[in-house]
């Protein structure tokens, strides 16, 4: 019996050190929460089996969330940025609440207060960096913003240092290890949730298409993997998520790549989706209007000889962004689910079913966005590595904020460089 119990513990990933930590964290794990399904759905689906009832609840709530997603897209990038921040705060709250439930019986001071304070500090730092980077002319025009921008990093460090000192002062004898556990818990949560949510905002400012397509691919993969797994699933995929199957994983991949190609084709034809968000000094408003780049202009591509006999075409006209969408949808299908597996391992470690019961049939907000954060990081890295180049408009904005003598020095240096290359002479002749 002893050997059997030890093997069970090993299967669950628990070691002796885990048992010691468990006793220090209060002995018993948090009590799992159940989904608060609306009464109207309970009555309407009362005659169905639990399997099909869950299918309908998830389906109805999924359609509701997709409808809400379309509404906020219609409202524009600033509303989207606000929604991202609200989701970030809710995800942070769900993870911190799990930590609080683990050790609340110790009555240790300032854990929640310091957690939310550090969230405020990190958000102040990231939003300040974002505003300065993307809306430089607005910052330079307003005196208070210019001062805050100039000393932004010093102010951010001072705020964090205040929280650090408060944590040291809150240390209680005999509970040092536990308090440092929770300090680390808070900072890892900030790294996972806050940092990556700001990468989502950076992607959004590059153009709404870089925000909508990746998020939609993750949503599509989640839905199609569930559908294929529900109807055809037979082979378990991973022990961390017993309900995930190979049939759902593979079916979701092909469906997501096809969906990404179609969605990219539709969105690439609209400037409101492809243009970056910029601040217009003349109208004092944020605008999304530009001349589409080469990524969003139809081009003709030769189809490989192997496929020509199958499809019957020699060439195809498509947007270059559609090729990039294949990379995005492939990541969303093959690597993105590992964000969900990571979250599943986290929940199994604390023996909880969901992060919260915010959305009936789906769990908490973090349960819906566990893959989105991993996807956001990939998109940001992808843009920086393969898409983004020097931005002439930003360089000109910064150039105009310099002193006249600095502007003249840069002008003379650039003029001499162009003359040496023979470009200025040809321009003058023209």
Automatic annotation (TrEMBL):
The chain crosses the membrane at residues 110-127, 154-172, 179-201, 207-233, 245-267, 321-343. It catalyses: 1-octadecanoyl-2-(9Z,12Z-octadecadienoyl)-sn-glycero-3-phosphate + CTP + H(+) = 1-octadecanoyl-2-(9Z,12Z-octadecadienoyl)-sn-glycero-3-cytidine-5'-diphosphate + diphosphate; 1,2-di-(9Z-octadecenoyl)-sn-glycero-3-phosphate + CTP + H(+) = 1,2-di-(9Z-octadecenoyl)-sn-glycero-3-cytidine-5'-diphosphate + diphosphate; 1-hexadecanoyl-2-(5Z,8Z,11Z,14Z-eicosatetraenoyl)-sn-glycero-3-phosphate + CTP + H(+) = 1-hexadecanoyl-2-(5Z,8Z,11Z,14Z-eicosatetraenoyl)-sn-glycero-3-cytidine-5'-diphosphate + diphosphate; 1-octadecanoyl-2-(5Z,8Z,11Z,14Z-eicosatetraenoyl)-sn-glycero-3-phosphate + CTP + H(+) = 1-octadecanoyl-2-(5Z,8Z,11Z,14Z-eicosatetraenoyl)-sn-glycero-3-cytidine-5'-diphosphate + diphosphate. Residues 1-38 are annotated as: Disordered. InterPro entries: PC_trans (IPR000374), PC_Trfase_euk (IPR016720). It comes from the Eukaryota. Its main location: membrane. Residues 7-23 have a biased composition (Basic and acidic residues). Its EC number is 2.7.7.41. One of its GO terms (biological process) is CDP-diacylglycerol biosynthetic process. One of its GO terms (molecular function) is phosphatidate cytidylyltransferase activity. It is found in: Membrane. GO terms for cellular component: endoplasmic reticulum membrane. The lineage of its organism: Eukaryota, Metazoa, Chordata, Craniata, Vertebrata. It is a multi-pass membrane protein. Belongs to the CDS family. This is Phosphatidate cytidylyltransferase. Keywords: Lipid biosynthesis, Lipid metabolism, Membrane, Nucleotidyltransferase, Phospholipid biosynthesis, Phospholipid metabolism, Transferase, Transmembrane, Transmembrane helix. Pathway: Lipid metabolism; Phospholipid metabolism; CDP-diacylglycerol biosynthesis; CDP-diacylglycerol from sn-glycerol 3-phosphate: step 3/3.
